[in-house]
Specification:
Elements: H1 3-20, H2 24-39, E1 47-50, H3 56-61, E2 75-78, H4 82-94, E3 99-102, E4 119-122, E5 129-132, E6 137-141, H5 146-155, E7 159-160, H6 171-177, H7 184-187, E8 194-200, E9 206-210, H8 215-224, E10 231-238, E11 240-241, E12 247-255, H9 259-272, E13 279-284, E14 288-296, H10 300-307, E15 319-323, H11 325-331, H12 342-345, E16 357-363, H13 369-379, E17 386-392, H14 395-398, E18 414-420, H15 430-445, H16 465-470, H17 474-484
Parallel strand pairs: 2-4, 3-4
Antiparallel strand pairs: 1-2, 5-6, 6-10, 7-11, 8-9, 8-10, 12-14, 12-15, 13-14, 13-17, 16-18, 17-18
The chain binds flavin-adenine dinucleotide.
Flavin-adenine dinucleotide binds next to strand 3, helix 6 and strand 10.
């Protein structure tokens, strides 16, 4: 974009600065940033949106589906190219304003929204996807939502990528913090399928990051990359051939009073099939318990064996659906996505506004009947909107040694998420959400291995978040942080520090 056009974009900024009353320090920062971007204007096509809560533009880029602690960053820079990201970072650093990369904006603690003194680098327009059918690889812009990823891969040769079932999640956060879903046990995490990345370092340099070029950074970004080192603008992924997958989805629904028998069946099934492919999930709410099994090529006898692990008293008849990979993706996406094209309508504003808070645990424990019975009482005393979700780990995820990538959680049987998404006035306040979760926490703690999932960030973890997210890999992550970002420019409450605290 040429200078006059950029000025046109930046001009309203001056007006906004005056009309909504920034502090003197903020005005100085904005003016410095603006002047720096103008100086580099021949290279820059970024869109700049300064804070103005009366502006539709600002409110739309600043859309936060999670209504807990709303944040109003100083400004948004929306780059159109990797060069724009480089310029944004150089100017941000020169103006001494922190920059926060944002892909899909699904961080539980909203770490991609920075704070009121910082600027968000919103990667929404870096979302191009190119499929290399022969090589079974795809180039995916870091701002693409999983909805677009799944649609584009499927419609360009029936390919898939293992990642989250929630299609509103951004590929950026998913791939840099792990990315777990129905296909992880078969094809690994999203991060395990990264071949290379374009990465903008804190000095604004563009680095090509691959296993054999910048290997330390490649290692660090494979699970520890969430806003810790710099900004990934593009990924190259290995993709899998999904055309021939004959998928079966089995869903069982029970009353919560059968908890002991169901939990027992679930853990046995997870353990027995820990080296295989199936996804085995269980969601417990105050209303009911749902068990979901997803696998391919199951015979009727296989299905019978699975169902027989559970008590026969069900709330609904067993549901067994045969489908292809894409139908499964669509069915488990969001209630709004009924047709394939609906996936392309998913946007950053599709997730409706509600409060959300969660805690997570990895577990490899098999509980005896006495321990399972101890879990039960707390389940009856929680509000609606709270849930306890279990997802099986193992298979391809656990075949990788714990220190081969920075994603350390490689020896668990399942991942547990305790979440609250308030559905009644009573539990809508943040304080109330925290109190309920802490109570429920005691339940999950019985199962805890001492690890939490960095993609389910939990701001309540204070002294031990590094250990819980990264285990023994934290030492190497800190060394790499010192090499790549010695000024700790990319920093937030739970980022990788320069030294072990
Ligand atoms: C409704 C919902 C369902 C979910 N389901 C699953 C699931 O099934 N499986 C699973 O594994 N996870 C799941 N998650 C968690 C999700 O994977 C993480 O929250 C993920 O980090 C979100 O990525 P994002 O790009 O949308 O988020 P963002 O908020 O944009 O980013 C998350 C973090 O990564 C940083 N970041 C983003 N992009 C970049 C980049 N390009 N370069 C460097 N840093 C970057 C941000 O600064 C921030 O710290 C779910 C989350 C939600 C809210």
């Amino acid at each position: 974009m040429k200078l006059p056009l950029l000025r046109k974009i930046l001009l309203p900024l001056i007006v906004l600065v005056n009309c909504i009353g920034f502090s003197n320090a903020s005005i100085k920062v904005i003016n410095e940033l603006k002047s720096c971007l103008e100086t580099n204007a021949s290279n820059t096509t970024s869109i700049f949106v300064a804070r103005n809560t009366h502006s539709e533009r600002y409110n739309s880029v600043n859309y936060q589906w999670n209504t807990n602690s709303e944040i109003f960053p100083l400004a948004y820079i929306v780059p159109q190219t990797t060069k724009d990201v480089q310029n944004a970072v150089r100017c941000g650093k020169a103006s001494k304003v922190r920059m926060f990369p944002k892909s899909g904006g699904h961080s539980y603690e909203k770490y991609s929204f920075g704070d009121s003194e910082s600027v968000v680098v919103d990667l929404a327009n870096l979302s191009e996807i190119r499929v290399n059918k022969a090589g079974k690889t795809a180039q995916i812009g870091a701002g693409a939502l999983l909805s677009k990823v799944y649609f584009t891969l499927w419609t360009n040769g029936k390919f898939g990528l293992p990642s989250t079932s929630c299609t509103g999640v951004g590929i950026g956060g998913a791939a840099l913090g792990g990315g777990y879903g129905f296909w992880s046990k078969r094809f690994g995490l999203t991060s395990d399928n990264v071949i290379g990345m374009d990465f903008v370092d804190p000095q604004g340099n563009l680095l090509k990051v691959k296993r054999n070029s910048n290997p330390d950074l490649f290692w660090a970004l494979g699970g520890g990359g969430l806003g810790n080192f710099g900004i990934v603008t593009n990924f190259e992924f290995k993709i899998f051939d999904a055309a021939s997958l004959n998928v079966k989805q089995i869903v069982l629904k029970f009353c919560v009073n059968l908890f002991e028998q169901i939990f027992s069946g679930f853990q046995t099934l997870v353990y027995e099939r820990r080296n295989g492919n199936p996804y085995i999930g269980m969601t417990i709410t105050p209303q009911d318990i749902t068990v979901k099994i997803i696998d391919t090529d199951l015979s009727d006898a296989d299905i019978r064996k699975i169902v027989d692990r559970f008590p026969p008293q069900m709330l609904k008849p067993v549901s067994v659906k045969s489908m292809d990979f894409f139908e499964l993706t669509l069915e488990n996406s969001t209630p709004e996505t009924k047709t394939p094209e609906d996936l392309l309508k998913v946007s950053r504003m599709s997730t409706s506004k509600h409060g959300y808070r969660a805690k997570s645990y990895f577990s490899s424990k098999i509980l005896n009947h006495r321990k399972i019975a101890q879990l039960k009482p707390s389940l009856s005393s929680v509000p609606s909107g709270i849930f306890l979700q279990f997802g099986s780990f193992g298979g391809a995820v656990n075949q990788i040694p714990k220190n081969e990538t920075s994603f350390v959680h490689r020896d668990s049987l399942y991942l547990i998420q305790v979440g609250i998404s308030p559905s009644d006035e009573h539990s809508k306040t943040e304080l109330q959400q925290r109190i309920w979760l802490r109570e429920f926490n005691n339940v999950a703690q019985v199962l805890d291995n001492g690890e939490s999932y960095q993609n389910y960030v939990d701001g309540e973890l204070k002294n031990d978040f590094l250990q819980r997210y990264y285990g023994d890999n934290v030492r190497r992550l800190i060394e790499i942080k010192r090499q790549i970002d010695p000024d700790n420019y990319f920093a937030y409450e739970q980022s990788i520090p320069l030294r072990n605290p």
